[in-house]
Amino acid sequence: MRHNRPSETRATRRVPKRGGQFGPVSPRPSDDRRSRLERWASLLERDPHRLIALLRPSWAAGDDIAPMAASPSAVDLAWVDPVFRVTGLAGRSRADVKAFFQLSDAELDRIAAGSRRVPLRPAWQVAARIRNVADPRPEKLILIGVMLMIVSVVGAAQWLG
Questions:
Q1: Residue 26: partners with Cβ closer than 8 Å, 6 or more residues away
Q2: What pTM was estimated for this model as a whole?
Q3: Among candidates 58, 47, 63, which has minimal Cα distance to 123?
Q4: What span, in angstroms and rounded, lies between the C-alpha atoms of 73 and 77?
Q5: C-alpha distances in Å from residue 102, one per residue of 76, 87, 113, 115
Q6: What is the pLDDT of residues 31-54, one digit of tens each?
Q7: 108-134 pLDDT per residue, tens
Q8: Which H or E element spans position 130?
């Protein structure tokens, strides 16, 4: 019996097309990215109060992946997961993590970077940041709501004053 990786199984599965014919299905890259980020967030949420060491921002550290504190970083927890390593996480470097999760420098900094004043963060906060990067729609709705409130307050002040 041959065991396939999930990506191979998805690519060879057949679904009916119009007219009753079957054709191969290829996974959408955004679904693959989103599922990887969701798994990363769920790994962090297994122990939500664990302190996660943050990395230096990319503009300050370059490709340095050393955490700013003695606790493991979110990248370390992703590297320890055997599913990520089997599915293609090549290493713990910033470039490997960005390539595997299909992240930009800004997105990786948003998830795992800290500052000298805040070198640690609870795991649930890092997981929330990962989910916001995976699906930014709720965050955009909050931003739009705040902007509408500001515009309405300014409009009311202009109307009254």
A1: 10, 11
A2: 0.66
A3: 47
A4: 7
A5: 17, 14, 17, 24
A6: 689 999 999 999 999 999 999 988
A7: 999 988 888 888 999 999 999 999 999
A8: helix 123-134
